[in-house]
């Protein structure tokens, strides 16, 4: 296994860079025969696993302390060195760099604290520095993640360097190099630079993230509801419904083919939510109920990407997400899931490993209600005060954390590091943003809609064969005894497989008390994805992993619902 050694002066951001390269799976060790500690982790390099060693900080290869001795000895074990250089203090750091050239070991320079050097008015001609030294030089900012991806991609170019100098003239050569490649000027931070810095610092980044999330939900809800109310519902009710009613009359208003194509008539009319026909519910659900929120969410997501915020959000939550077996970019499927679980499930493709995709998809399906369902829960439980809503969403968040920790503990595999370029904040290019929105929306329609229609068809058949009624009967004892819900709630839980928000709405006429509403809302969110998400998850995870995920969903939903029922009975 190739050994990559991180070597640099103390306090140059080397440990942060190490965390960026290896995630949180690190091993702290004492160097043999010493109490000097160094850390070791792993990364993928050129498709192969490589060990990364974070050597103790050292100013020179002529050690004056035990830590510097260990750093020098670790150098002998390295196949390649990443020399971490502080861009704000080039002169001091180049001493070690020139010593590495004398050693003849392949290395690459990470010109770290690059963002800070710009803020302080230091300008370094990277190309001239690279040509002078004869080794690759990559500007990086380990805190924000800027340049990390490029650094990893260029490790293969590492070489011993070609700079020739006499040992006794080393500092003279360093001064000459610095004069040649570096300029210092006075400048102030721009507002966007200050905002960019604040976005990745926990103290300021978290409040910014909360404000952004609140704005996202408001925009998505407003756009989605407006599209439904003023565009899609009128199209279906005024244009499509009369055509389907004529077809219904031609089919005799009943029979197997009628039930498959149009479904059941509700009081002699088509109910696009409850009829369950391919031409009614099968089209209405993906186009009039899901697509508006997906469209709105893709618009907001594209804006966040192009403005430069989304990568910073990934960096901000990276450490937390690693605790759950994911990395920072896993926040994307979670965010998308809040709009609609279907694109959230599809977005798990951004994750590198099967393990990550499984954890992210399972967590999203269990703990992330879609926007339509959130609105229904707020309307139903919110009537009893904010405390009930706090219990519902607080429980889901706690379950998200707990199940993530458990899966991270017991599922085999590792969480790879996050490699993402951090662009500066800039206004999105509108044409490009709309193009991206169009491509994503059409992709959703091509990928998701056929599967949704297939899912509706299957549910329709199961209803026709009374299999769903049978499931309702055998699960009734769990619903009434374990969850403390009335038998009538079984219907809502079954409909929840088709649409979660509709299922929550079906609880309204049952006269449930606050305890029952909280339990039902939590269980409805957790127990199983809606049919559209379910079909997409099978496609993304495969049947075997989806079955495992389903077991986790049902088991955790019953367990959490039962515990909630017991606890809430006490208070």
Automatic annotation (TrEMBL):
PROSITE patterns for the chain: G_FEOB
GO CC annotations, alphabetized: plasma membrane
Protein name (Swiss-Prot/TrEMBL): Ferrous iron transporter B
Gene3D superfamilies membership: P-loop containing nucleotide triphosphate hydrolases
Transmembrane segments: 195-220, 283-304, 324-346, 358-381, 387-407, 448-468, 517-538, 550-568
Pfam families listed in its UniProt record: FeoB_C (PF07664), FeoB_N (PF02421), Gate (PF07670)
UniProt source species: candidate division TA06 bacterium
Residues in the signal sequence: none
PANTHER family documented for this protein: FE(2+) TRANSPORTER FEOB, FERROUS IRON TRANSPORT PROTEIN B
Example GO molecular function: ferrous iron transmembrane transporter activity
Lineage, opening ranks: Bacteria, Bacteria division TA06
Domain FeoB-type G: 1-161
SUPFAM superfamilies recorded: P-loop containing nucleoside triphosphate hydrolases
InterPro entries per UniProt: Fe2_transport_prot_B_C (IPR011640), FeoB_GTPase (IPR050860), G_FEOB_dom (IPR030389), Gate_dom (IPR011642), GTP-bd (IPR006073), P-loop_NTPase (IPR027417), Small_GTP-bd (IPR005225)
Assigned keywords, A-Z: Membrane, Transmembrane, Transmembrane helix
